[in-house]
């Protein structure tokens, strides 16, 4: 995954989720506070209305108390009481009404057409039996009831929410009641709801604006850093390519110099030694027929011949180490096998395991693997005191791996890396592999050392 996508996934997305969660929390809390405020205001209005209605009923009862307490129930007394109650008005929609316990309208100053009608089965705009509820509430000792009723001052014949307070006048089987319309309360509550909604909307706008600005600033900063990082990575990649090219040039120069030295030794010094050896052998042949005084000279010439022979063998070994002639002629596996054969000694057993030839590798990559094996085996023989060494050449669809393990005494890898006077062979192996796009790793402990060289295919 690219760095830009990682930043979006692991930084910006969680931030957006956090801001969304904050916005939802603020919205829920603001809505809840608005509902609590609405309920509190509605309760305050209702409490004030309830107290007002109680006072009105108390006033109505006092106004007819002299008639009601007289014990009379004749028609004149009843009509006088109705007349007094009908004339008690407060405001354009404040009046008193009378029902009997069967739901018949006895007095209604604002709707006289209802007088004498039985409204027991009447239902309001919400489908509630309003008169039944009022009578039932009165029978229970009096109280408040909410229902829908036409407002006298309204000209559109629309029912409004009304809150009534009713009591029973038992001597006359009357239900006395009065009520106030709650449209003013509903208007206040509607304004409160609108104000709360506007406040929530403005709060969400502020949160959205702050979140947008914050995200824009963060994204801009991240993108700027990413752009700078990309530019730095590009420059670093160019520098790495130049360094790799320089390293490859150095290695190529080393290989060319090795080849030149090998050719000089092979074509110059070696023929001279061969001629010297042949002349010594000819001289020995001529001395065989001479006197005994020359026996000592023969011995010296024989020793010189043997020394020349040993020198030639050592020279061949040096030439082979400088430039692996077998690598191009026989392949990497055979070159490694001959390297193992030449490096094997009584104290150290070396075993080679190679599944197949790494033929897809360029000659430069094969030379690097051979040099890594050569350097690693030289280090094992000289420094590790190992009894067993395994060298494994493996290949899969992606890369070729060369692994060299020994059971020697090991060493401190970090200390060798930090010491500029030591570890030249390790740094040279690492440099060679980097020059061909490979990877070098080494692990070492008291139980042995493992060297791993990996070169990708293709």
Automatic annotation (TrEMBL):
SMART domains: Cache_2, HATPase_c. GO terms for biological process: gluconeogenesis; glycolytic process. Residues 275-458 form the Histidine kinase domain. The chain crosses the membrane at residues 7-27, 204-226. It is a multi-pass membrane protein. CDD domains: HATPase_UhpB-NarQ-NarX-like (cd16917). GO terms for cellular component: plasma membrane. Pfam families: HATPase_c (PF02518), HisKA_3 (PF07730), sCache_2 (PF17200). It comes from the Bacteria. Keywords: Cell membrane, Kinase, Membrane, Transferase, Transmembrane, Transmembrane helix, Two-component regulatory system. It is found in: Cell membrane. Its main location: membrane. GO terms for molecular function: glucose-6-phosphate isomerase activity; phosphorelay sensor kinase activity; protein dimerization activity. This is Histidine kinase domain-containing protein. It comes from Nitrosospira lacus.
């Amino acid at each position: 995954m690219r760095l830009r996508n990682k930043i979006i996934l692991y930084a910006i997305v969680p931030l957006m989720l956090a801001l969304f969660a904050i916005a939802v929390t603020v919205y829920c809390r603001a809505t809840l506070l608005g509902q609590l405020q609405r309920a509190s205001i509605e309760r305050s209005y209702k409490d004030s209305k309830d107290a007002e209605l109680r006072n009105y009923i108390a006033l109505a009862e006092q106004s007819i108390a002299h008639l009601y307490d007289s014990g009379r129930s004749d028609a004149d007394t009843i009509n006088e009481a109705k007349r007094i109650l009908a004339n008690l008005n407060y405001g354009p929609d404040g009046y008193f009404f009378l029902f009997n316990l069967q739901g018949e309208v006895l007095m209604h100053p604002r709707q006289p057409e209802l007088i004498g009608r039985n409204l027991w089965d009447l239902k309001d705009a919400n489908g509630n039996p309003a008169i039944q509820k009022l009578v039932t509430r009165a029978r229970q000792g009096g109280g408040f009831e909410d229902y829908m009723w036409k407002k006298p001052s309204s000209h559109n014949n629309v029912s409004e929410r009304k809150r009534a307070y009713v009591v029973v006048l038992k001597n006359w089987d009357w239900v006395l009641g009065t009520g106030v319309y709650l449209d003013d309360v509903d208007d206040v509550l509607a304004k409160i709801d609108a104000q709360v909604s506007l406040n929530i909307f403005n709060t969400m706008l502020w949160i959205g604006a702050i979140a947008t600005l914050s995200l824009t600033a963060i994204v801009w900063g991240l993108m700027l850093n990413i752009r700078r990082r990309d530019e730095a990575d590009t420059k670093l990649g160019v520098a790495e390519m130049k360094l790799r090219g320089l390293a490859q040039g150095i290695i190529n120069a080393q290989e060319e110099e090795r080849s030149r030295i090998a050719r000089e030794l092979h074509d110059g010094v070696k023929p001279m030694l061969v001629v010297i050896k042949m002349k010594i052998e000819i001289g020995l042949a001529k001395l065989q027929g001479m006197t005994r005084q020359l026996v000592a000279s023969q011995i010296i010439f024989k020793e010189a011949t043997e020394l020349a022979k040993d020198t030639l063998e050592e020279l061949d070994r040096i030439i082979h180490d400088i430039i692996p002639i077998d690598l191009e002629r026989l392949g990497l596996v055979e070159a490694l096998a001959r390297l193992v054969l030449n490096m094997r000694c009584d104290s150290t057993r070396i075993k080679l395991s190679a599944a197949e030839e790494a033929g897809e590798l360029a000659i430069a990559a094969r030379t690097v693997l051979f040099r890594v094996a050569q350097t690693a085996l030289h280090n094992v023989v000289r420094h590790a005191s190992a009894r067993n060494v395994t060298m494994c050449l493996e290949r899969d669809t992606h890369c070729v791996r060369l692994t060299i393990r020994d059971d020697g005494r090991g060493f401190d890898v970090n200390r060798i890396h930090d010491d500029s006077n030591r570890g030249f062979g390790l740094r040279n192996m690492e440099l060679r592999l980097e020059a061909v796009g490979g990877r070098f790793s080494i692990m070492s402990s008291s139980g042995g050392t493992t060297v791993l060289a990996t070169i990708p295919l293709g």
